[in-house]
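Whiteboard transcription, Tuesday session. T.W. wrote the structure tokens on the left side:
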């Protein structure tokens, strides 16, 4: 029998106990006086590449039957004018009438991005985070009361999965809803970053904070652990919460979103998206290259979480904290691998235990130390240099000329750079700086709408 336990005071879990319940009929009247909007960020290759197009077309067909949605925003990245026309053709052939095209590379939205840059939002880093951030702004400008987010590469997508995600926010008035599911394809377990990094890493933090009796940090870690799939990209957020939240642009976006939700919302929901297989793109490990694959993803997640704890929550750490944390993580992660191996054997699934242990010790544990050193090294290096220059008379002439002051100034500069985790300001803040931005976004949408209606 499926679980239906409710074990966290701030998180309500919606479990899928029956597959044949059609929530669409409940959502339509609930949306009558509201304006739910969905954002689908997509690279052009996700509908132009022959191997990807069937996945995108299936999603569009399913979404066309979500009659409770006021708008479906397709945020298109790396798309030419020809690509946009192809996307519109796919949407119209599926019978979708409520679509909105956010052409990020077009002249109209290029101007919006420049206005936001001028207002202090660093959007120079291209990618999904930037695309989604603009999508939130578009949804706000269209008057959305709640906003959903759905990746464009879900191979097993069904509309009823989205219905479940919107239900807590649209019907039960929760400010935030997040999907959870099992990442597997019928033959093997996926979700390696969640299984091998995030859960053991959070448990390692919990163990250390438990030893130090740091209740403040324990509350945050317990909140993050209460989610069955913290790294899922499928969420629905009430607009009032959305406007107050800051955003990350890198792979740390999901974990930082949960940290922001912890700070700004009192009661939230997680929803079982599906009990069947759930499959989308998988990342390669990239052991030797920290700029790509699971290696880059792990560094971003660890850095975002540690930045939130150390810089924003005021966690004090000593010189050995990160290496002790990495050792604790290794112990817990190794135990987790045995559990996953046993579970895979129980279900007759393929499981490469040695490969997963290799990822833990050769990539993920080192990523924890690497991210920690990056956060802590400026202060440690400056402390050693100050002690060294004060201990030997040979440095006295240089100290008189301001050597130690220069060390302190450089420390502050490097510290600021090392802790720059590229968080974007909230839309509430940007709307205060640019009260006309909503009008500019609507004008950009209308400009592109005219452009492509004429070109057809």
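and on the right, the sequence the group agreed on:
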């Amino acid at each position: 029998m499926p679980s239906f336990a409710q074990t966290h005071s701030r998180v309500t879990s919606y479990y899928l106990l029956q597959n044949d319940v059609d929530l669409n009929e409940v959502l339509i009247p609930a949306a009558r006086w509201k304006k739910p909007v969905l954002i689908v960020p997509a690279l052009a290759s996700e509908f132009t590449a022959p191997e990807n197009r069937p996945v995108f077309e299936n999603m569009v067909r399913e979404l066309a039957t979500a009659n409770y949605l006021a708008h479906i925003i397709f945020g298109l990245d790396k798309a030419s004018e020809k690509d946009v026309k192809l996307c519109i053709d796919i949407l119209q052939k599926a019978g979708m009438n409520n679509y909105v095209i956010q052409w990020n590379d077009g002249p109209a939205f290029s101007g919006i991005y420049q206005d936001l840059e001028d207002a202090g939002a660093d959007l120079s880093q291209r990618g999904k985070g930037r695309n989604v951030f603009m999508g939130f702004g578009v949804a706000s400008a269209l008057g959305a009361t709640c906003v959903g987010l759905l990746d464009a590469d879900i191979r097993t997508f069904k509309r009823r999965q989205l219905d479940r995600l919107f239900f807590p926010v649209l019907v039960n008035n929760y400010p935030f809803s997040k999907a959870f599911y099992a990442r597997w394809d019928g033959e093997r377990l996926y979700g390696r970053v969640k299984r091998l990094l995030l859960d053991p890493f959070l448990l390692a933090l919990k163990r250390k904070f438990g030893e130090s009796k740091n209740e403040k940090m324990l509350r945050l870690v317990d909140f993050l652990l209460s989610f069955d799939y913290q790294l899922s990209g499928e969420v629905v957020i009430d607009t009032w919460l959305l406007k107050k939240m800051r955003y990350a642009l890198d792979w740390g976006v999901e974990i930082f979103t949960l940290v922001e939700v912890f700070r700004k919302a009192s009661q939230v929901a997680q929803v079982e998206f599906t009990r069947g297989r759930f499959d989308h793109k998988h990342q390669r490990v990239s052991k030797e290259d920290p700029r790509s694959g699971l290696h880059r993803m792990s560094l971003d997640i660890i850095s975002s979480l540690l930045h939130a704890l150390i810089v924003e929550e005021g966690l004090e750490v000593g010189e050995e904290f990160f290496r002790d944390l990495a050792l604790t993580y290794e112990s817990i992660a190794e135990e987790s691998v045995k559990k996953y191996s046993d579970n895979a054997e129980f279900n007759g699934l393929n499981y490469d235990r040695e490969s997963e242990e290799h990822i833990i010790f050769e990539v993920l544990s080192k990523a924890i130390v690497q991210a920690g050193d990056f956060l802590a090294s400026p202060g440690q290096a400056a402390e050693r240099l100050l002690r060294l220059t004060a201990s030997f008379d040979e440095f006295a002439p240089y100290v008189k000329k301001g050597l130690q002051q220069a060390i302190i100034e450089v420390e502050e500069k490097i510290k600021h750079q090392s802790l720059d985790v590229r968080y974007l300001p909230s839309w509430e803040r940007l709307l205060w700086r640019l009260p006309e931005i909503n009008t500019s976004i609507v004008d950009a949408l209308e400009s592109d709408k005219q452009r492509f209606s004429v070109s057809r």
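Someone added at the bottom: The radius of gyration is 24 Å.
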